[in-house]
Specification:
about 80 residues, 2 helices, about 65% helix
Length: about 80
Amino acid sequence: MHHPFINDLSEKSADDLQQTIQDLHSKLNFVYKTQNQPLINQLHMVLESYKSEYGKRMDELYKKQNVQDSIKVSNDKKW
């Protein structure tokens, strides 16, 4: 679920998104120690919004670079 107050993350760079995700993880770790469930839920929603946008960016990048998403394993040697 996305956070309702986060509208558009398309203006942020991939590096900014990644840095914010790291910051949110550290804040989330702190909030878990305080056991503040409403704040934990809010941070999870914000984190999901940023991760979703970052995932879209990485998918676009992989498509542009024509990165294969599967690995072919074969043994051409004959014993």
